């Protein structure tokens, strides 16, 4: 992911902006995929869930819905608590990563328009 143009530079061309959106979307997908993998392995190891059930539980927590299977072990409860907090933060970080190019472009455009009107 390359840097953004400075406020004194012109607005990035549309193709560069679209590549930037794609790069940021890919990075957000990578973050969410890694987070999902952490959850799957964690549920598998701490609760002894098979891989598919671990995937279901991790997906539901990462998506904000909550677990499907009850957590029975102390290790599983610790993991589920930490993973739920981690998932909430990673979801917000991913949203921020996705929206960063859009917000930057909007603010840059408004700054350019403001500079022209002076």
Structure description:
- By secondary structure, the chain is mostly helical.
- It has a domain at 36-117: Helix Hairpins (Orthogonal Bundle), CATH 1.10.287.
- Helices cover 76% and strands 0% of the residues.
- It has 3 helices and no strands.
- The chain has helices at residues 14-47, 51-62, 74-117.
- α1 crosses α2 (51-62).
- The longest helix is centred in the last third of the chain and has 44 residues, at 74-117.
- It is elongated and about 65 Å long.
- The mean pLDDT is 92.
List the helices and strands and how they pair.
Layout (H helix, E strand, L loop, with lengths): L13 H34 L3 H12 L11 H44 L1
Helix pairs in contact: 1-2, 1-3
Keywords for this entry:
0% strand; mainly alpha; Helix Hairpins; 118 residues
* Secondary structure tally: strands: 0
Structural class estimated from helices and strands: mainly alpha
The second-level CATH architecture of the domain at 36-117 is Orthogonal Bundle
What overall form do the CA principal axes indicate?
elongated
Enumerate the spans where pLDDT stays under 50 for 5 or more consecutive residues.
Answer: none
Largest sheet: none
The ordered string of helix (H) and strand (E) elements is HHH
- In the CATH hierarchy, what is the class of the domain at 36-117? Mainly Alpha
SS field, number of helical segments: 3
Q: How much strand content do the residues show?
A: under 5%
From the alpha carbons, calculate the radius of gyration and give it in angstroms. 20 Å
Average pLDDT reading: 92
CATH fold call of the domain at 36-117: Helix Hairpins
Separation, N- and C-terminal Cα atoms: 33 Å
Helix content: over 70%
């Amino acid at each position: 992911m390359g840097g953004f143009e400075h406020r004194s530079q012109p607005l990035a061309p549309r193709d560069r902006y679209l590549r930037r959106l794609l790069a940021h979307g890919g990075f957000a997908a990578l973050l969410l995929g890694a987070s999902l993998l952490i959850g799957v392995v964690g549920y598998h190891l701490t609760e002894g869930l098979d891989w598919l059930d671990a995937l279901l539980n991790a997906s539901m927590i990462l998506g904000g819905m909550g677990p499907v299977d009850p957590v029975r072990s102390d290790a599983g409860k610790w993991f589920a608590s930490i993973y739920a907090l981690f998932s909430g933060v990673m979801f917000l970080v991913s949203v921020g990563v996705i929206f960063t190019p859009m917000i930057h472009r909007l603010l840059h455009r408004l700054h350019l328009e403001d500079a022209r009107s002076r």
